[in-house]
Amino acid sequence: MTISDSVVYHYLAIGKLGRGEVVKLFLIDAGINFEERLYRRDDTWPETKEKLKKQGLTRNGQVPALEYKGLVLTGHIPILRFLSRDLGRYDGNTSEDKYLVDLISDIYVDWRVHWVTNLKGPNREYKETTAPQYYDLIGKYYADREGPYLLGDEVSYADFAVYVSIDNDARTGTLPDTLPESITKFKAAFEARPNIIDYIKQG
Protein backbone atom coordinates (compact mmCIF):
# COMPACT_ATOMS: atom_id res chain seq x y z
CA MET A 1 0.00 0.00 0.00
CA THR A 2 1.00 3.63 -0.38
CA ILE A 3 1.17 5.63 2.84
CA SER A 4 0.54 9.35 2.52
CA ASP A 5 2.88 11.94 4.01
CA SER A 6 -0.19 13.63 5.46
CA VAL A 7 -1.28 12.73 8.98
CA VAL A 8 -4.34 10.46 9.09
CA TYR A 9 -5.98 9.31 12.31
CA HIS A 10 -8.00 6.08 12.17
CA TYR A 11 -10.36 5.13 14.98
CA LEU A 12 -13.86 4.00 15.88
CA ALA A 13 -16.88 6.30 15.80
CA ILE A 14 -17.50 6.01 19.55
CA GLY A 15 -17.33 9.65 20.58
CA LYS A 16 -14.69 10.52 23.15
CA LEU A 17 -14.48 7.06 24.68
CA GLY A 18 -11.53 4.75 24.39
CA ARG A 19 -7.86 4.66 23.57
CA GLY A 20 -8.02 6.69 20.38
CA GLU A 21 -9.17 9.81 22.20
CA VAL A 22 -5.79 9.99 23.95
CA VAL A 23 -4.04 10.22 20.58
CA LYS A 24 -6.54 12.69 19.13
CA LEU A 25 -6.25 15.02 22.12
CA PHE A 26 -2.45 14.89 21.87
CA LEU A 27 -2.51 15.75 18.15
CA ILE A 28 -4.75 18.75 18.79
CA ASP A 29 -2.60 20.01 21.66
CA ALA A 30 0.59 19.60 19.63
CA GLY A 31 -0.88 21.61 16.75
CA ILE A 32 -0.59 18.71 14.30
CA ASN A 33 -3.10 18.95 11.46
CA PHE A 34 -4.67 15.62 10.68
CA GLU A 35 -7.42 13.93 8.72
CA GLU A 36 -9.83 11.88 10.80
CA ARG A 37 -11.29 8.60 9.54
CA LEU A 38 -13.81 7.03 11.88
CA TYR A 39 -15.33 3.57 11.51
CA ARG A 40 -18.66 2.35 12.82
CA ARG A 41 -18.54 -0.18 15.67
CA ASP A 42 -21.46 -2.26 14.45
CA ASP A 43 -22.03 -5.35 12.33
CA THR A 44 -19.91 -3.79 9.56
CA TRP A 45 -16.81 -3.61 11.79
CA PRO A 46 -15.51 -7.17 11.17
CA GLU A 47 -15.42 -6.51 7.42
CA THR A 48 -13.93 -3.05 7.90
CA LYS A 49 -11.29 -4.47 10.20
CA GLU A 50 -10.19 -6.98 7.56
CA LYS A 51 -9.95 -4.19 4.99
CA LEU A 52 -7.74 -2.16 7.31
CA LYS A 53 -5.50 -5.18 7.82
CA LYS A 54 -5.18 -5.72 4.08
CA GLN A 55 -4.36 -2.03 3.63
CA GLY A 56 -1.52 -2.36 6.13
CA LEU A 57 -3.10 0.02 8.63
CA THR A 58 -3.26 -2.54 11.43
CA ARG A 59 -1.81 -6.00 11.89
CA ASN A 60 -4.11 -7.22 14.65
CA GLY A 61 -7.30 -5.44 13.64
CA GLN A 62 -7.10 -2.93 16.47
CA VAL A 63 -7.21 0.84 16.24
CA PRO A 64 -6.20 3.63 16.70
CA ALA A 65 -3.76 3.73 13.85
CA LEU A 66 -1.92 6.84 12.73
CA GLU A 67 -0.38 7.54 9.34
CA TYR A 68 2.51 9.88 10.10
CA LYS A 69 5.47 10.90 7.93
CA GLY A 70 5.16 7.83 5.75
CA LEU A 71 4.79 5.44 8.68
CA VAL A 72 1.85 3.57 10.15
CA LEU A 73 1.88 3.79 13.93
CA THR A 74 -0.31 1.63 16.17
CA GLY A 75 -0.80 1.14 19.91
CA HIS A 76 -2.04 4.35 21.53
CA ILE A 77 0.68 4.73 24.16
CA PRO A 78 3.53 3.79 21.76
CA ILE A 79 2.07 6.36 19.34
CA LEU A 80 2.32 9.03 22.04
CA ARG A 81 5.89 8.02 22.85
CA PHE A 82 6.89 8.14 19.19
CA LEU A 83 5.31 11.55 18.64
CA SER A 84 6.87 12.94 21.81
CA ARG A 85 10.33 11.86 20.72
CA ASP A 86 9.78 13.09 17.18
CA LEU A 87 8.60 16.49 18.42
CA GLY A 88 11.25 16.74 21.13
CA ARG A 89 8.71 17.51 23.86
CA TYR A 90 6.03 15.90 26.06
CA ASP A 91 8.57 13.33 27.30
CA GLY A 92 10.45 15.15 30.07
CA ASN A 93 14.11 16.11 30.08
CA THR A 94 15.84 13.84 32.58
CA SER A 95 15.96 10.08 33.01
CA GLU A 96 13.82 10.51 36.13
CA ASP A 97 11.25 12.49 34.14
CA LYS A 98 11.07 9.82 31.47
CA TYR A 99 10.78 7.10 34.11
CA LEU A 100 7.82 8.85 35.75
CA VAL A 101 6.07 9.40 32.43
CA ASP A 102 6.53 5.75 31.47
CA LEU A 103 5.44 4.57 34.91
CA ILE A 104 2.19 6.55 34.96
CA SER A 105 1.48 5.43 31.40
CA ASP A 106 1.84 1.80 32.48
CA ILE A 107 -0.46 2.37 35.47
CA TYR A 108 -2.98 3.93 33.08
CA VAL A 109 -2.79 0.92 30.73
CA ASP A 110 -3.59 -1.37 33.66
CA TRP A 111 -6.51 0.91 34.58
CA ARG A 112 -8.00 0.74 31.08
CA VAL A 113 -8.14 -3.06 31.17
CA HIS A 114 -10.50 -2.77 34.14
CA TRP A 115 -12.41 0.25 32.81
CA VAL A 116 -13.68 -1.53 29.69
CA THR A 117 -15.86 -3.73 31.92
CA ASN A 118 -18.12 -0.67 32.33
CA LEU A 119 -19.06 -0.33 28.67
CA LYS A 120 -22.19 -2.45 29.13
CA GLY A 121 -23.09 -0.68 32.36
CA PRO A 122 -21.29 0.42 35.54
CA ASN A 123 -19.31 -2.35 37.24
CA ARG A 124 -19.92 -2.01 40.97
CA GLU A 125 -16.59 -3.53 42.05
CA TYR A 126 -14.74 -1.30 39.61
CA LYS A 127 -16.54 1.85 40.78
CA GLU A 128 -16.18 1.14 44.50
CA THR A 129 -12.69 -0.34 44.57
CA THR A 130 -10.64 -0.23 41.36
CA ALA A 131 -11.27 3.38 40.33
CA PRO A 132 -10.65 4.92 43.78
CA GLN A 133 -7.42 2.92 44.12
CA TYR A 134 -6.26 4.08 40.69
CA TYR A 135 -6.83 7.78 41.38
CA ASP A 136 -5.35 7.53 44.86
CA LEU A 137 -2.20 5.96 43.40
CA ILE A 138 -1.63 8.40 40.54
CA GLY A 139 -2.60 11.27 42.83
CA LYS A 140 0.44 10.49 44.98
CA TYR A 141 2.75 10.82 41.98
CA TYR A 142 1.14 14.09 40.88
CA ALA A 143 1.57 15.44 44.40
CA ASP A 144 5.32 14.72 44.41
CA ARG A 145 5.98 17.86 42.36
CA GLU A 146 4.23 21.20 42.69
CA GLY A 147 2.26 20.52 39.53
CA PRO A 148 -0.15 20.96 38.06
CA TYR A 149 1.20 18.31 35.69
CA LEU A 150 2.99 15.08 36.48
CA LEU A 151 6.36 16.72 35.80
CA GLY A 152 5.48 20.00 37.46
CA ASP A 153 4.73 22.85 35.06
CA GLU A 154 5.67 20.83 31.94
CA VAL A 155 3.00 18.70 30.30
CA SER A 156 3.89 15.14 29.28
CA TYR A 157 2.21 12.51 27.13
CA ALA A 158 1.17 10.66 30.29
CA ASP A 159 -1.01 13.64 31.24
CA PHE A 160 -3.15 13.05 28.16
CA ALA A 161 -3.77 9.44 29.15
CA VAL A 162 -4.62 10.39 32.72
CA TYR A 163 -6.99 13.14 31.60
CA VAL A 164 -8.85 10.78 29.27
CA SER A 165 -9.16 8.24 32.09
CA ILE A 166 -10.89 10.91 34.20
CA ASP A 167 -13.11 11.90 31.28
CA ASN A 168 -14.02 8.31 30.39
CA ASP A 169 -14.88 7.47 33.99
CA ALA A 170 -17.15 10.52 34.08
CA ARG A 171 -18.89 9.36 30.90
CA THR A 172 -19.53 5.86 32.27
CA GLY A 173 -20.67 7.12 35.66
CA THR A 174 -17.74 5.50 37.44
CA LEU A 175 -15.68 8.52 38.49
CA PRO A 176 -15.20 8.67 42.28
CA ASP A 177 -17.16 11.44 43.99
CA THR A 178 -13.92 12.83 45.40
CA LEU A 179 -10.57 12.94 43.62
CA PRO A 180 -7.16 13.63 45.21
CA GLU A 181 -6.40 17.35 45.34
CA SER A 182 -3.42 16.91 43.02
CA ILE A 183 -5.65 15.31 40.37
CA THR A 184 -8.34 17.99 40.70
CA LYS A 185 -5.63 20.64 40.24
CA PHE A 186 -4.25 18.81 37.22
CA LYS A 187 -7.67 18.45 35.59
CA ALA A 188 -8.39 22.17 35.88
CA ALA A 189 -5.02 23.14 34.39
CA PHE A 190 -5.23 20.59 31.59
CA GLU A 191 -8.69 21.73 30.51
CA ALA A 192 -7.38 25.29 30.21
CA ARG A 193 -4.62 24.43 27.72
CA PRO A 194 -5.00 26.87 24.79
CA ASN A 195 -5.03 24.38 21.91
CA ILE A 196 -7.57 22.01 23.44
CA ILE A 197 -9.82 24.22 25.57
CA ASP A 198 -12.45 24.63 22.83
CA TYR A 199 -12.38 20.94 21.92
CA ILE A 200 -12.87 19.89 25.54
CA LYS A 201 -15.77 22.33 25.94
CA GLN A 202 -17.60 20.49 23.14
CA GLY A 203 -18.38 17.79 25.67
UniProtKB/TrEMBL annotation:
<dbReference type="InterPro" id="IPR004046">
    <property type="entry name" value="GST_C"/>
</dbReference>
<dbReference type="InterPro" id="IPR050213">
    <property type="entry name" value="GST_superfamily"/>
</dbReference>
<dbReference type="GO" id="GO:0004364">
    <property type="term" value="F:glutathione transferase activity"/>
</dbReference>
<dbReference type="InterPro" id="IPR036282">
    <property type="entry name" value="Glutathione-S-Trfase_C_sf"/>
</dbReference>
<protein>
    <recommendedName>
        <fullName>GST N-terminal domain-containing protein</fullName>
    </recommendedName>
</protein>
<dbReference type="InterPro" id="IPR036249">
    <property type="entry name" value="Thioredoxin-like_sf"/>
</dbReference>
<dbReference type="GO" id="GO:0006749">
    <property type="term" value="P:glutathione metabolic process"/>
</dbReference>
<dbReference type="InterPro" id="IPR004045">
    <property type="entry name" value="Glutathione_S-Trfase_N"/>
</dbReference>
<dbReference type="Pfam" id="PF14497">
    <property type="entry name" value="GST_C_3"/>
</dbReference>
<feature type="domain" description="GST N-terminal">
    <location>
        <begin position="7"/>
        <end position="91"/>
    </location>
</feature>
